[in-house]
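User: Before I run my own analysis I want an independent prediction to cross-check against. Here's the chain; please return only the structure tokens and, at the end, one sentence I can use as a sanity check.
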Amino acid sequence: MKNTKTRKLVEGALMIAIAYVLSYIKLFSMPLGGSVTLEMLPLIIMGLRNGPKWGCFTGFVHGLIQMVLGFSNVMYCPTLLTQIGCILLDYLLAYTALGLAGLIAKPFGEKRLAGAAVGTVVCGVLQFLCSFLSGFLVWGAYYDFTGLDLVAYSFTYNITYMAPNTILSVIVVLLLYKIVPKLFEAQNA
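Assistant: Structure tokens:
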């Protein structure tokens, strides 16, 4: 039992390291934050392999690391409440949600390829929702969007990079599943 926990901790640490490196390989970046990368992929794979407990834990730790390394972003928020919102929505909840892929894929049973694809899409949507909410609840208090519908702006801005992130991740998950199916085998608890 201890060896299994140790293996999952090591695997989680490796997935966090891979996600961190992938966060710097950007296909394009948005002017006010956000970019198209494959950063979410290792966190989703962790959730698919080890279930939501280990997947969410790994995503949470990755979110903490990203928050600490990008803490200057939090300091741009004008109030304590918006800083808390930024920490929760831009870092902790957004990355933790990626670990739910295994939970979402589970009802697909033997149709594991479909489950992996749907799990990736749903996790991408959850991460988008965090960014969307942050855009108008947190960052709307900072930026002057005079004359703009803040909800529409946040939706449009965040979908611009989150949709490609999710689509790219689904494509890579499907390719990896076809090429290396053992990568997605459930691990014993």
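Sanity check: Residues 108 and 114 are 7 Å apart (CA to CA).
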